[in-house]
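Batch manifest, entry 17 of 40.
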Amino acid sequence: MPVPTVVAAVRAEAVRAGLGAAALSAWAALPTGEHPAVRSLPEGGSVLLLPGYAEGESVAAARRLLGAVGLERLGRPVRGALTAGTRWAEAGYPERAEAERLRVLRALEGVTTLVCLDPDDARALAADAPDVVRTLTEVLWARRTALLPRLRRIIEGPVLYLDPCRLGRGLGQYEAPRGLLAPVVGEVVEATMNRAQGGCCGAGGGLPATAPAVAATVAREAVADVEGVPVVLAGAVCAAHVRAAVPEREVYDLAVLLARAL
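Output type: structure tokens
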């Protein structure tokens, strides 16, 4: 059985016994969609954006990029469904997680595309709506003929690309982020452990809430293979965590970097 599944099951038992960690429940309850880039989206539509826990800059970048590939008329799920509840599952609250997931699924009637900024949300929803649920990277790569010619190189030297584990090992999306990144940098450099053998950024499973020093160490080890060059991750949550843990390095969410390159 996968380790994350075991950890979630043990945490759920702890919660039922009244021994759940307060730090985990606080982490799961962090608000989403508080920034203008989300609030200004209308509810409903055929193409919806699910921001998850992405920072405002990443949401704004995603909106700009989607507009550049012809998806200007974006909406957000009705009834305030902005995440599929994966943090609640990891924190030991499977019923709350399932309620959040079903709330998003109920909002998909008539929707052709749900663009998830968090790969965790895409993984949680894809089995029930495989023709609708997509990651941002997936959507941009599918429409790359409209996007790539508009991108300019904004970093002349190399960058270190790290595979977020939920996008890479979780969803098998390796080529798309590299293909999108290549036109805007001088060289895409791989970590020693990459693709299916890629490591962890330290942001998952509530680790920053329960063991922040360990989570920061994981992030520092992830970028240690190649020193002195900017770091890029195709995921807002991972990028924000690594940026905070390694303030001396330039760390970018791929969406933000691409939006700047337009």
